[in-house]
């Protein structure tokens, strides 16, 4: 399940469904769980992923060729959530594939497949609000994003509908590039904390053990996604899992 | 002028963007809502268009062609005579006024055929702004002359190599840039698509076309036109040509989409006709997108890079749904025929994009009476796209000339190297 506020930092990692293949996804996820990762996003590949940098964009294109889809994501989750009852799986998708599936049906099917939460970068809080009673009933947490330029008024509105954790986008831009964890960042995290008791997941720019060390004590979750997909792309899922294990050791999180 | 309800036109429109882009869009919306209530702002815009872009553009009767086709009297609204060669500059000049008010020093834009990129580069040069233009790598190859001019004007042109390497990917990449640069950069969206307020804002500036057209028709025809026809890519020239006539129910409004090679998936860019596109939410807004059952946006084709787009203005999607706008399509072959016919009969060289409007308009004019009037919005000119047009009309002397010219250019580059 999701961590509680002030729990020790844990890493959330990533799979793009169909990248490099659907079979490989299962193996990669097992490797992540073995390495000690308990929060895993399963990303539905999309033709136009506007919040992602080149690593995830290219992984999406590859995944679409190998059969990645909403249906494949639900099927994958049904399998891996049974195989790894200690891990929590989070549906990550852009809105259109889910919209085409039918949002209400999708929410029901996602919960039935074992998903605990959802990250949908282009679905603003206003669109989630009408679904909140259903989502609470299903126990499917909308993990909403806040960004450095989100106003206090809007953070408050987002915090009201957020469940599970709040995804704190660490900086301006898209995924896959370095972030500086300076004073400005800490002031930003402090500002978000004023609006919510939920644990915070920091995403965008978490790429090395030093980043994890910098975030230990500041946040409960660090999203280590693009860099992991780069490992998987360049060296395969086994080596990527090995590197993940080393990373957690180096960051003193294992 | 059409107005949205909180950014929506019927079920279409809205603002579905990553949280990071919301503040800039709401800032833009607030500014736009204030400015459009201020008549002096519209006057400032029209004056700028006059001084810089040669507006008003003429309404030209096609006497010889109308007679030859034997139907309605055909007129062209000459957006091809704008500075930069297309209607795109109208929107860009308008957004330039907004950039000045916001005090931002950098602009970015997506471009398909390169017309919008070129117009943006021109505006940036004139206002002393930095400009980065995103363009699909395949479109760069199709429209290299525009790339050449954008770079000469001082803009940075970035080739986008993801996906189908056309307009859709260029728009994605511009959104990614904007997510990182939104505090100092304005995104000059080029068509009546994207997240609110862009569809409405772009249509507002482009409506200068139909406002002029309306007055000119009353003077030159003594009546409003029976039909107004425009090609539809994203939809900005069509919205520009239709906007002032929306309440005139007797004026038929016809949007012509790119029929490409065939009705087969991936061989056309038709979104408004039945059995083509379906409602979807992507690139920041809800509209009719060509897509598969999994919601993946589809591939498109058109002989004209500027019409090669997977979505369509949410305003046009709505107006088509309500029956106010009639959708039509023209195939690549019909388009090249219409292109030749206009050139040879009236001495006007149209853009291939605009030639879709011609093909659709000529077809309709033939079924109308000689006492009726039909206006086609000639959104851009073709003479500057000589490489592209030459490809549509293959003839042996052109590649032979290109070979000789390539040798000459290379000699100049080599000589410059030696002198250094």
From TrEMBL, chain A:
Keywords: Amino-acid biosynthesis, Aromatic amino acid biosynthesis, Lyase, Tryptophan biosynthesis. The active site is at residues 41, 52. Pathway: Amino-acid biosynthesis; L-tryptophan biosynthesis; L-tryptophan from chorismate: step 5/5. Gene3D superfamilies: Aldolase class I. InterPro entries: Aldolase_TIM, RibuloseP-bd_barrel, Trp_synthase_alpha_AS, Trp_synthase_suA. It is an enzyme of class 4 (lyase). It catalyses: (1S,2R)-1-C-(indol-3-yl)glycerol 3-phosphate + L-serine = D-glyceraldehyde 3-phosphate + L-tryptophan + H2O. Tetramer of two alpha and two beta chains. The alpha subunit is responsible for the aldol cleavage of indoleglycerol phosphate to indole and glyceraldehyde 3-phosphate. This is Tryptophan synthase alpha chain. The gene is trpA.
From TrEMBL, chain B:
The modification N6-(pyridoxal phosphate)lysine is found at residue 88. PROSITE patterns: TRP_SYNTHASE_BETA (PS00168). One of its GO terms (molecular function) is tryptophan synthase activity. Its cofactor is pyridoxal 5'-phosphate. Keywords: Amino-acid biosynthesis, Aromatic amino acid biosynthesis, Lyase, Pyridoxal phosphate, Tryptophan biosynthesis. Pathway: Amino-acid biosynthesis; L-tryptophan biosynthesis; L-tryptophan from chorismate: step 5/5. It comes from the Bacteria. Its EC number is 4.2.1.20. Residues 54-380 form the Tryptophan synthase beta chain-like PALP domain. GO terms for cellular component: cytoplasm. It is an enzyme of class 4 (lyase). The keyword Metal-binding does not apply. The keyword Amino-acid biosynthesis applies. It catalyses: (1S,2R)-1-C-(indol-3-yl)glycerol 3-phosphate + L-serine = D-glyceraldehyde 3-phosphate + L-tryptophan + H2O. CDD domains: Trp-synth_B. Tetramer of two alpha and two beta chains. Belongs to the TrpB family. The beta subunit is responsible for the synthesis of L-tryptophan from indole and L-serine. This is Tryptophan synthase beta chain.
